[in-house]
Amino acid sequence: xxxxxxxxxxxxxxxxxxxxxxxxxxxxxxxxxxxxxxxxxxxxxxxxxxxxxxxxxxxxxxxxxxxxxxxxxxxxxxxxxxxxxxxxxxxxxxxxxxxxxxxxxxxxxxxxxxxxxxxxxxxxxxxxxxxxxxxxxxxxxxxxxxxxxxxxxxxxxxxxxxxxxxxxxxxxxxxxxxxxxxxxxxxxxxxxxxxxxxxxxxxxxxxxxxxxxxxxxxxxxxxxxxxxxxxxxxxxxxxxxxxxxxxxxxxxxxxxxxxxxxxxxxxxxxxxxxxxxxxxxxxxxxxxxxxxxxxxxxxxxxxxxxxxxxxxxxxxxxxxxxxxxxxxxxxxxxxxxxxxxxxxxxxxxxxxxxxxxxxxxxxxxxxxxxxxxxxxxxxxxxxxxxxxxxxxxxxxxxxxxxxxxxxxxxxxxxxxxxxxxxxxxxxxxxxxxxxxxxxxxxx
Amino acid sequence: xxxxxxxxxxxxxxxxxxxxxxxxxxxxxxxxxxxxxxxxxxxxxxxxxxxxxxxxxxxxxxxxxxxxxxxxxxxxxxxxxxxxxxxxxxxxxxxxxxxxxxxxxxxxxxxxxxxxxxxxxxxxxxxxxxxxxxxxxxxxxxxxxxxxxxxxxxxxxxxxxxxxxxxxxxxxxxxxxxxxxxxxxxxxxxxxxxxxxxxxxxxxxxxxxxxxxxxxxxxxxxxxxxxxxxxxxxxxxxxxxxxxxxxxxxxxxxxxxxxxxxxxxxxxxxxxxxxxxxxxxxxxxxxxxxxxxxxxxxxxxxxxxxxxxxxxxxxxxxxxxxxxxxxxxxxxx
Lengths: 443, 333
Fold this sequence. Notes:
Order of helices and strands of chain B: HHHHHHHHHHHHEEH
Distance between the termini of chain A: 49 Å
Number of strands of chain B: 2
Largest sheet of chain A: 2 strands, antiparallel
Distance between the termini of chain B: 46 Å
Structural class of chain A: mainly alpha
Helix content of chain A: over 70%
Radius of gyration of chain A: 23 Å
Strand content of chain B: under 5%
Structural class of chain B: mainly alpha
Shape of chain B: globular
Helix content of chain B: over 70%
Oligomer: heterodimer
């Protein structure tokens, strides 16, 4: 492994790790606020227990997200100093605002976690809501910075110098809205299905059924709503990409020949050397339609681009297919759930089993989508402006840093999973007032 | 507006040293107390820093964002040539933050707690040590962008006796801050112990401070001139020394709030003395050149936007933060 690949792998791993915790931090506070609201309105202690159980999980996950986020703010420079030297002043605006949002989130979380019986009830509830709102704002701002890398704006290059810098224009680049929308919905889909899957599993195991059913309802409904909305935002994103980054779209679809009536591929094994795709099912005209809203519209193929400007096709294509397939499956599950809900058959075992199967799917799709946007942007770190290979640190030995960080992330993931498992196991004893083993939380 | 940004940069570094430092100190103090007191100290520290530890570490993020937006050359130069201690510090931050939360929120109380506790204590000690090394490397004139070989460019840039001495000094300061802060949160039985520990940390601060001067001479750093060459430096050190004498009176009279204020004041004075003389230069290179906050700042428009973002951010953050500290600040149990 050479240092450049090591640097890219380390960055991908760090972001891939952080994105999970960041998304949980964006979504879980809203679940907590909902449960907390029900408790404050009805006085039902079950919901108080649920809010506290969730908030313990959030404390663990938020801290992991906060430290991995801190690390990322350094890693950008440690791995990509040339990029940061030029890009920092241009796309730094969302980061400086994100600093504020993240700060408020941390303060509000302190209030929320330690505020039981110490703050006014509704003030306490509001701090929980602020955690969610500022988490959402942080996420959107960071995505706006990433969108700038896909759609650079707010500066000119004159004789190799970056001039006429306009940080506000850079922040509101053409890609920020569609990316932020897609990412936010993805966070709700992924977290919603992950949480509801875990609670569905506990219901199936007949453990603290009432408690887990309450949790399942809140998370599953949110997940399903977001899952149904996500294809609309996906369509907006695809049209955006088609316009601004035709190379990325072509790699997503493994589309080599520029043509009108361009076909949409289902599956298929791209061969980058031979510039063909084998074993794919082709839906004629559908790619033209999805990209430009017209089945006759021509779609640029990879062959029109010099080889050194093409993204890796196979990874982008597989990741895109994974995301789409999972997205469709989750829409189907959402529709089934809503139908069952209407017929008052929502908590039948077969349906709960489907939710258990869907537990990891949202996050797999989310990671796949992240791979599509990041790998699909290659070989550029700033689309059309700076190549990733020109941005990497001159320091040799990044391979060892990659090994080190791999070890850290693997052990952290294992520990977090272990802690959450223990939290879930202790629900009856610590959080569910209807459980015979319940003991009031000493904290 | 550039001056607003510089003030924010200095203030966030200062607040990180004070609040983040006290936070690191919580682990260092836990390491320093005798074994039989550890469980009680652990509970006290967990209550004292639990609600605010994440906010305390935000100051580092604010400082780093100011650097990479406003002074990208400073940020990238440090990232390239001080890469190794930065990674060490990051690993410390990760280990510490996660171990603290894992220990506090684990649903089951068993042998795992001890592992988390050990990770928390040792990383609390290692992280400020590397922070000190990183800070020292900016003024050591050891960063050499022209260096051809790995050792000169990436190790010699930070591994000096001066760096090590600053690392130890920073660690001692963190312990001192946490011990004095904690005095106000405990009852009489533990207070005596914490006062003893706080005093020990003061001796450590003084001894490691003396080591800093010796190491500076050894590493050819005109530290003495920097600090005592100007009125502000002399004044800052004089005030810090006087306040140290007052601190011992406060110990005897058990004036909790005064102790906290004094400890904070001393640290601010030390930071002031250490930074003002080479202002506006922030990073000094081995060839005599440097990176200046005024000359190497980003574009005017960027600095303006950053300044406004910081100012408007403060309107939201500061009142909220003060209230948080007030609600959870003096928790006696």
